[in-house]
Design brief:
By secondary structure, the chain is mainly β. Helices cover 0% and strands 61% of the residues.
């Protein structure tokens, strides 16, 4: 089974974004189903957002307005996880008028 973690970095200040709510959802025929949620710690991390996840399409919903970003109050990142016994780390780099993400390690 697969695990998932994330972190949020404010690239303008160069500091972790703490206090950001992150929700993990899974795609199903009925729409998006809630899996788990967490809030970034002082280091901007949610270490165990998802554990023992099966293969499927997942959506991370970052409440970036919590980090003081009025232009992007919410960011959605959709990933397709396979059934490998891997751990996925999906960071979010955030600034006032832009964001990016990647598969971390």
């Amino acid at each position: 089974m697969t695990g998932l973690s994330t972190h949020v970095l404010d690239t303008e200040s160069g500091q972790p974004a703490s206090g950001v709510k992150v929700t993990l959802e899974r795609s199903s025929d009925a729409g998006w189903q809630h899996v788990s949620e967490g809030t970034t710690d002082d280091d901007g991390r949610v270490a165990a957002l998802g554990v023992a996840l099966g293969a499927g399409i997942y959506r991370l919903v970052f409440a970036t307005g919590d980090a003081g970003n009025p232009f992007f109050p919410e960011v959605h990142v959709i990933v397709d996880l396979d059934d490998a016994p891997d751990h996925y780390h999906v960071p979010l780099l955030l600034s006032s008028y832009g964001y990016t993400t990647y598969r971390g390690s």
